[in-house]
Write a structure and sequence with these properties.
heterodimer; A: 2 domains; B: four-stranded mixed β-sheet; 4 strands; 12% strand
Chain lengths: 369, 138
Amino acid sequence: MNSSSTQLVLVKRMGIYDPFHQVNMWGDSFKIDGSLNSIASPMLMMKPSMQNRTDCTPNESREPSGDDQESNDKADRKAQRRLAQNREAARKCRLRKKAYVQQLETSRVKLMQLELEIEKARKQGLYIRSAVDVSYMGSSGTINPGITLFELEYGHWIEEQDRRNEELRNALQTHASEMQLHLLVASCLSHYSNLFRMKADAAKADVFYLISGAWKASVERLFLWIGGSRPSQLLNIIVPQLEPLTDQQIVSINNLRLSSQQAEDALSLGLDKLQQSLVFNIPSDPLVVGHYGFEMAAAMDKGEALEGFVNQADHLRQQTLLHMSRILTNGQAAQGLLAMGEYFHRLRTLSSLWSARSCDPSFPIHHSN
Amino acid sequence: MFQEKKRMHYQVEAAAAWSYYMRVRSMEEDQMERVARLASQSAVVIFSVSSCCMCHAMKRLFCGMGVNPTVHELDHDPKGKDMETALMRLLGNGSINSTAVPVVFIGGKLVGSMDRVLAFHIGGTLVPLLKQAGALWL
């Protein structure tokens, strides 16, 4: 039985179990040996399993001629694999479609919620731009979530501010105690801190939007300085409302007015330099591809520097308010905060009146002749 | 034999790493010392970068008050980068800035970055500080 031993060696050398290959081998040895009996039984064993695997066509030869059968099996294997892959792909496609539809549904719900919020804010008399771009649209046409959030929060902040003004007015009219006034003043100042925090987040989201004052009422924008009011302007609003001022207080307030003016001038000059360098950094010929990326990256750095200026300006405003509250007594501070709150409320009311006048042609217009 | 060679090699490597570490530390300390030395040379010393606009704002703030500050432009200094890291360490993690400049020293002592300067100025403590350092008269 030399043939069987050589076949065993051949099997060992192959190392992989491959029934069809072995069938081939057996077939070869059959050809070599010429004796059918020694290999008949393994062949009979292989044949039924082969039949189970393939969908046999009636034309398929039942003779164990190794090569033809092997290529048929290979073709069948390929067909099987292709069908299986197609099934997988179809399944994955169905899953993706399902996920996409779910996403659409949630976005639709969010959109309805946002529209409700805007309707509510509009009723409050806030100035909101025309219905064409109802929410904030960046230049690329996409919605910036940080800015949308800021606009919503600012709407709530305004409501809160009006409420606090009411409380201050009541407290002053009813001659509340020092402690109560002190608490009210502290809560008002922390409310302003909230605003500055919101503005800092919005500056990170889109500094150009914030610095443009687009979120403010139209008349407020007349007095815009680096994304808000001038601190010296705040002093001009507050001080005339405070009647009994001691000499010491007058001196402190004058010093404060001077130092805030100096700080404002410094920041303005720094901002001028930033604007100039931004103008010179934008490439005049955008078709010059080589330098484009580098100069645009430098321009993006300027955007970050602008964020720094907005933050410093807000810091200056907050420091001015805090120092004023230190100079003044509780009653005076309450008066001052109320005066400021009323001033901005009047500006907002004026803005909404103005926008109503622009939109409604039947609004009575007084001509002074 | 082989073990001994291995041990010696390890010791040499460790010694090399340690000496490199000590050199880096001493370089940093050199820069800290240099910063401190420059800071005490004048009444008001500003560390700045010539292209930085916030540094420009700080320079204009002091000039507007009638102070003549000594300005060190770090981008014109060969060791500027190291000095910048030293200043960053000085400012610490409490600073809201991501950049080391501008930083101002008054009378040799660190005041800080732009937000600290503004806070002091609004609070009314900057002018007395300048007078004390002899940068302002009257």
